[in-house]
Amino acid sequence: MTTGLQITTPTDTTIVLARSFKAARRLVWEAMTSPDKMKRWMLPPPGLTLSVCEVEPRVGGTLKLAWKSADADPVMTLHGEWTEFAPHERMVHTETMTAGTGEIVVSLVETHEFTETGGVTHMRITQTYRSKEDRDGALAGGVDEGMEACYRELDAVVAL
Amino acid sequence: MVSGDRSPRLDLVFHALAHPARRAIVRQLSLGERNLTELASPLKMTFPAATKHVRVLEGAKLVRRRIVGREHLCRLQPEPLKEAMQWTGSFRAHWEARFAALDSVLDDMQVEEQAPAKRKAP
Prior knowledge:
The complex is a heterodimer.
Chain A: E1 6-8, E2 14-21, H1 25-33, H2 35-41, E3 49-55, E4 62-68, E5 76-86, E6 90-99, E7 104-117, E8 120-129, H3 132-140, H4 143-157
Helix pairs in contact in A: 1-2
Chain B: H1 8-17, H2 20-29, E1 34-35, H3 36-40, H4 47-59, E2 63-68, E3 71-76, H5 79-120
Antiparallel strand pairs in B: 1-3, 2-3
Helix pairs in contact in B: 1-4, 1-5
């Protein structure tokens, strides 16, 4: 069974993440909308910890996340608002990432869609960015941390 | 931040890797230099077909060919692969890690749901 993550870029400003989970749709929904569960799977970027996770899962409700490091608190905050909320099926929220300095890093809209077949939930997240530059920045973001691991993996298969 | 959004070089790399035979050739070459016959035979491919795929890989600078006598020796050039991984690697790694964590959260939730039922049993 394929549960693997599929990442596609159907348009210049979107990224689609598709993944299946071996669990009922209502459980996936709960895990993605309740702070105690979100804290456990929304892993922070390397070196950061999630310091704030407040969500009001309903239309007009807000979403607030913040990350801190040993040196700075917050390093990054995420503010958003739900514009659609159809339990177990579909939710849409805005998302603005702000650096600790107050500078807005990126704004996007995230659409989450869920279907269930035979006890397996198929999730599709569409991230819509304001420009191709923002979208490509998100795809490339954090590359420095990820690079080392990629290089090690590559070095193992390629005789340099 | 990686530039590469409009890189014709990266386009060539992704195009070259978008064929199973060419990925098989890259995998073989990751083990060392091979001649065209050695590349063609495990793929059950004719010599001209293998040559065609190697040309695409050469165009993307993933493979370098040198001719020694009558042999065409092919060697993998990993730099463009590194660039391609740099462009895609981290975003994917980040989300794969998150969703793997979500898998285990869901496992726990399923166990928790079943637990009270078990406790009710005499």
